[in-house]
Design brief:
The complex is a heterodimer of chains A (252) and B (229).
Chain A (H helix, E strand, L loop, with lengths): L6 E9 L8 E10 L5 H14 L21 E3 L2 E2 L21 E6 L7 E3 L2 E2 L2 H8 L21 H11 L6 H5 L6 H13 L1 H4 L2 H14 L10 H5 L7 H13 L3
Parallel strand pairs in A: 1-5
Antiparallel strand pairs in A: 1-2, 3-4, 3-5, 6-7
Helix pairs in contact in A: 2-7, 3-5, 5-7, 5-9, 7-9
Chain B lengths: L6 H26 L9 H10 L3 H32 L14 H4 L1 H20 L13 E4 L2 E4 L1 H9 L2 H28 L7 H28 L6
Antiparallel strand pairs in B: 1-2
Helix pairs in contact in B: 1-3, 1-7, 1-8, 5-7, 7-8
The chains are: A alpha+beta (252), B mainly alpha (229).
Chain lengths: 252, 229
């Protein structure tokens, strides 16, 4: 850290006490921020100032702080996780901002994600979709010998690409319709691609997409905002695959 | 859950009915282009050929089109209302990465096309917009028989600035609607992959542009006085 230049930023942050509170924006000043601060560390600094001043700190979700957990549910200047390609908020650094910038920070906004407090939303609707079919229920027995089940490398790779989804909900937050199609598409595809998941593929895609709608998510209109928002780079080809699985399931 | 109440089922119905109308638009454009003279007898001969098809075919075709339009409008409105509810509170800052003006305004370009369709049918099918040039009332000779003067009706209509403007405006809406709709069909049917999807977006826009130029050529050449009755 040879560069000790610091920046001062204006933060316009969504504050909401609970799901029933209407909520409002509050303006804060972030001082002494260096370009090496991560976005969450910058918020930590602001919160320290708030605590010293006897005010309620900004409540936000975070966990791993190494870009893999997807807990940090913040929409920064209108873009989930700040809009940097394949980046969670903890890996977004303040070098992406300039001294004097004004930054809007909001929680994920979707009907299916009620706000718990400030920037924390309840994402259990995604768990409900998993509970509806994001598993295989066949008996697999003990650990099989390596390569006992032959899976071509490209298929295994594609299933792995789908499995990269960490369930952060950025796809829902980015979607103008608040749809969970990229999340559900990734989960459906991951299992449908592999022999262990194929047996229940038809039932799974129906149950998971039905639950998706029951949870209050919107419908997909192919904006592809989800793909742009996804910190793991999940491709919309998995939505296409889910659509295909759904069509196939009608004849199963 | 029934296919017609499921999320992906309705999406597929939107895609299939939409694509069926795109196929109709191809045939319609090819037929209309007979006005430029590639068919012996021009658009009057083409119109006469269509009307001399067996009645059950004509009625069946019209009913099928009506069904496509109705299903597309019904689910289009229903899904739009549902989707508006998917994010009840908008962000203070709007920032889109992939969504386009076309993808975000499908309901409005679609509504404009619906209104235009009604006008277009009233103009050229029911011929009540400008009765003085109505083809059914002005018969002209063609291959030793008298046929409705469709050419006269079309040319008479498009000489009017406002009529040409309405048609051109509607074709802008068609371009926007299809620039999102055509590629959307392949994604919804599950026929696109990570490699083909960006290409389909470009191809879809290109085809939509083709429709725009092809359709607009008729009022434009007539209004400019290049194509005469």
């Amino acid at each position: 850290m040879s560069d000790h230049k610091t920046m001062t930023l204006t933060l316009i942050v969504w504050r909401q006490k609970n799901a029933n509170d209407p909520g409002k924006f509050e303006t804060y000043t972030a001082k002494n921020i260096t370009e090496h601060h991560s976005f969450l560390e910058m918020l930590d600094c602001v919160n320290e100032d708030l605590i010293y001043a006897g005010k309620d700190p900004i409540v936000f979700d975070h966990d791993c702080r190494e870009g893999i957990c997807g807990t940090c549910s913040q929409v920064i200047n209108g873009a989930p996780h700040g809009g940097q390609d394949r980046t969670t908020v903890c890996q977004l650094h303040m070098r992406k901002f300039k001294d004097g910038d004004t930054i809007y920070i909001e929680p994920w906004r979707a009907r299916a994600f009620p706000i718990i407090r400030d920037l924390i939303v309840d994402r259990s609707a995604l768990d409900k979709i998993i509970q509806a079919g994001g598993y295989t229920s066949c008996h697999t027995g003990g650990v099989a010998d390596g390569n006992a089940i032959i899976i071509p490398k490209p298929v295994a790779d594609e299933a792995m690409d789908a499995a990269e989804c960490v369930g952060c909900g950025a796809c829902v937050a980015g979607c103008p319709n608040g749809a969970a199609m990229l999340f559900t598409g990734a989960k459906v595809s991951q299992l449908a691609l592999l022999p262990q998941g194929k047996a229940e593929a038809a039932e799974r895609v129906k149950n998971m997409t039905n639950t998706m709608i029951e949870c209050g998510f919107g419908n997909c209109t192919n904006h592809y905002e989800c793909m742009a928002a996804c910190p793991k780079g999940i491709n919309v080809k998995f939505i296409a695959r889910m659509n295909r699985e759904f069509l196939k399931a009608q004849f199963a | 859950m029934q296919f017609t109440s499921s999320s992906i089922g309705r999406k597929i119905l939107m895609a299939i009915t939409g694509q069926a109308m795109v196929l109709f638009a191809v045939v319609h454009l090819l037929g209309n282009s007979s006005i430029f003279g590639w068919l012996n007898g021009g658009i009057n001969a083409y119109a006469e050929h269509l009307h001399s098809l067996p009645l059950p075919i004509i009625i069946g075709f019209r009913l099928a089109l009506l069904a496509m339009v109705s299903v597309h409008i019904w689910f289009g409105i229903q899904l739009t209302i549902e989707n508006r509810g998917g994010r009840p509170q908008q962000y203070a800052v709007k920032s889109t990465q992939k969504a386009t003006f076309a993808s975000e305004n499908m309901i409005w370009t679609g509504s404009l096309l619906g209104l235009f369709l009604a006008y277009h049918l009233a103009h050229f099918t029911f011929q009540v917009i400008s009765p003085d040039t109505a083809a059914l009332k002005h018969l002209v000779p063609l291959h030793n028989e008298m046929v409705p003067n469709v050419l006269g009706m079309v040319v008479g209509g498009f000489k009017n600035f406002f009529v040409s403007l309405i048609y051109t405006g509607a074709m802008v809406a068609l371009f926007l609607h299809l620039s999102h709709g055509i590629q959307s069909f392949f994604q919804t049917m599950g026929w696109s992959t990570d490699k083909s999807q960006p290409i389909l977006v470009k191809l879809g826009t290109l085809v939509a542009l083709g429709f725009f130029l092809g359709y607009v050529a008729i009022p434009l050449t007539i209004f400019a006085g290049i194509l005469k009755g």
